[in-house]
């Protein structure tokens, strides 16, 4: 059924206007409305894909471009966009495959230059991709670009030699020499092969460092997976992974900025906009990129000391992102706590890093016996974690409820109580299943009258003095739901021994007694 053309055009124009203003969330909303009118419109699909890309929602962006590629199978642009998205996701094989498809589509459309761009991009990911080298050599030759053709034919000869195919390697070098008899590169390669010496492997073209480093970062993520099941991470490890991905993404932005027109480009370089951008400005930007790349390499290889040195150099040269500050705080923790505190206090201000940075700050303060600061930081971490468990529209309200509790801990003089707060919160957040635990804790909170303020999980944790009690209440309810009342009662009495004054435990016991018809005992 045909959609409303006027409504489609109106929402597309609104989407373009929002995109021009860099309001990508609103742009995505308008493009989605346009697609409700015409779900198979390639332009709307690609526009929505770009909006999701700018929002770093790569899965949705990929779905949009895949759909656009199905709708317009002869258009190479969706394939090019898919290649860039795959790179951001660390999926280099799929990125190369998409670029190869785009190259062939450009060639069919008689745009050899764009085809060459895509083949060169493949080689930046896989410099020893033989068929791409062969394709490039042939196209360069057809275009009359003999020097570049010779270079690729020599690269083909090198790859064939390393693969053990000496006959074809020699033929490729001989062809290069016939194509350009004056070429020193061709003569040298031919002499090397005839002397039974080894040709150097082909070099990687520019542009592959960002994707390669993102792939290395993503390998750390894949290390946190077992088969098809993803292994959960504690908040600090989760935040570390987020920081590394964001730092690696900056390398893409620099590469894209370098090849884009400086004034008019608006799409994929959004992260580096502004007066100087997160990478700083001027000639120092190149040095920032160099040290940032080396820091990522060192960290993914496990050399944390060198990673800290390189990242700090980048920071001193003008790298200004909360991701860098958090990563430096993490790298210096236990090595130089003063530096760690300085960087973590910077990153804790950013919502994406508040939880992880607060936990690290709490650990450092606790190690120094600074219990007020430690307890306040732990409570701030719990506030952020608890806010993830409620609907987004209630998150700010819940975080505000925690503020007086955080302030009170800063002036509390009961050292034993402060240490208990630290121990309780640490045991519940510094664990891989922290989300599962907090969901259970929130489900086990006593029901509130409609319109009442949200109850922070902190009240349950601190009142019961133990996360174990929270888990036991969950176990009691699970057993009761399965009609295993006797076992549920045993768990409930065990919880009562741990927290004899904790009201929710008494309520659970009373409800179990009612189930058994023991009304008088339940009332008591």
TrEMBL record:
InterPro entries recorded: TPR-like_helical_dom_sf, TPR_rpt
Domain of life: Bacteria
Any single Pfam family the record assigns to this protein: TPR_1
Keywords: TPR repeat
TPR repeat ranges, renumbered to this chain: 42-75
Protein name: Tetratricopeptide repeat protein
Provenance organism: Anaerolinea thermolimosa
């Amino acid at each position: 059924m045909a959609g409303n053309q006027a409504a489609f055009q109106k929402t597309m124009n609104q989407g373009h206007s929002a995109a021009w203003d860099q309001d990508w969330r609103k742009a995505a909303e308008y493009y989605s409305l346009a697609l409700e009118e015409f779900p198979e419109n390639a332009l709307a699909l690609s526009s929505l894909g770009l909006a999701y890309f700018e929002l770093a929602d790569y899965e949705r962006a990929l779905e949009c471009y895949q759909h656009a590629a199905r709708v317009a199978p002869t258009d190479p642009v969706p394939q090019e966009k898919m290649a860039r998205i795959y790179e951001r996701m660390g999926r280099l094989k799929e990125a190369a495959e998409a670029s190869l498809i785009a190259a062939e589509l450009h060639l069919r459309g008689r745009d050899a230059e764009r085809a060459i761009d895509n083949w060169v991009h493949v080689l930046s990911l896989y410099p020893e991709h033989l068929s791409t080298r062969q394709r490039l050599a042939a196209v360069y030759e057809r275009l009359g670009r003999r020097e570049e053709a010779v270079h690729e034919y020599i690269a083909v000869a090198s790859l064939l030699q390393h693969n053990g195919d000496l006959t074809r390697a020699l033929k490729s070098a001989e062809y290069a020499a016939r194509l350009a008899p004056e070429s020193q590169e061709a003569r040298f390669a031919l002499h090397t092969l005839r002397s039974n010496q080894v040709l150097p492997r082909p070099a990687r073209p520019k542009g592959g460092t960002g994707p390669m480093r993102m792939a290395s970062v993503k390998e750390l993520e894949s290390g946190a997976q077992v088969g098809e099941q993803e292994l959960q991470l504690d908040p600090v490890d989760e935040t570390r992974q987020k920081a590394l991905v964001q730092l690696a993404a900056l390398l893409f932005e620099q590469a894209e900025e370098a090849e884009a027109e400086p004034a008019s480009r608006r799409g994929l370089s959004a992260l580096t906009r502004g007066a100087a951008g997160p990478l700083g400005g001027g000639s120092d930007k190149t040095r920032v990129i160099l040290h940032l790349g080396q820091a990522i390499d060192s960290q993914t290889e496990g050399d944390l000391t060198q990673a800290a040195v390189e990242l700090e150099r980048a920071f001193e040269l003008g790298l200004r992102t909360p991701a860098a500050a958090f990563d430096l705080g993490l790298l210096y923790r236990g090595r130089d706590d003063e530096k760690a505190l300085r960087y973590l206090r910077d990153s804790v201000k950013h919502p994406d890093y508040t939880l992880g940075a607060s936990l690290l700050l709490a650990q450092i303060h606790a190690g120094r016996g600074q219990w007020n600061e430690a307890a306040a930081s732990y409570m701030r971490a719990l506030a952020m974690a608890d806010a993830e468990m409620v609907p987004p529209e209630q998150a700010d309200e819940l975080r505000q409820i925690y503020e007086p509790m955080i302030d009170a801990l800063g002036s509390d003089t009961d050292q034993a109580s402060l240490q208990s707060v630290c121990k309780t919160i640490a045991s519940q957040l510094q664990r891989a299943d922290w989300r599962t635990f907090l969901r259970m804790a929130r489900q086990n909170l006593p029901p509130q009258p409609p319109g009442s303020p949200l109850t922070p999980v902190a009240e349950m944790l601190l009142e019961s003095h133990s996360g174990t009690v929270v888990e036991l209440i969950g176990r009691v309810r699970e057993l009761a739901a399965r009609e295993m009342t006797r076992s549920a009662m045993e768990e409930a009495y065990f919880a009562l021994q741990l927290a004899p004054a904790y009201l929710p435990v008494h309520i659970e016991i009373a409800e179990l007694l009612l189930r058994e018809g023991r009304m008088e005992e339940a009332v008591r």
